[in-house]
Amino acid sequence: MKIEKIESIHEKVITNNEWQPVISVGRRHFPILRTLVVNFNYTNTFEKLYLNNLRDYNKKFSNRSMEHIHIHGDINDLQNNPMIFGYGDELDKNSKDLAEIKGSEFFKNIKSLNYQSTSYYKNILKFIDENKFEVIILGHSCGNSDRTLLNTIFEHENCTTIQPYYHKWEGGDNYFDIVCNIYRNFTKNASFREKVVEKNLCETLT
Question: Burial of 149 by CB count in 10 Å (0-12 exposed, 13-18 middle, 19+ buried)?
């Protein structure tokens, strides 16, 4: 994705200039003073291609800050942020059965347990607890492997909207697939319908 596209998305998030449709349906009535990028990738691709540019761009707007978290580990900083592999779906009907198994071998690849190795998961909780926020989804399928974390974010009382950016190609796109996965991360269907931004108000990644 080109840096110009990322900057365009970021501008629409931190300003109220070009996102009038979302405002008009009553889901956006607060200033965005902080941006938290939750990176599910292990590499430093985001930092190399986008982060410094976005921070420089952010300086144009006073009193606004940007933070960045590698929630599943950082391949360039394994000592302080080890990589987390595995599955993270405590909403699955079989998760309680797993908890009854004695020993710890079966838990080595459960993300919720490995999140405790750093403070990053708690930092996300602190961020979403402080103020109302929007979720902007770029390149994440929202599949069940991250269901526990995504459910915590999506169903939080401070979450006002969830805007997925989607891929489009000749003859189709993946907006519906992403929305189906987002739906699986909810336990409250009414909250899903209220928060997810309609396709006609969303944009493509390219």
Answer: buried
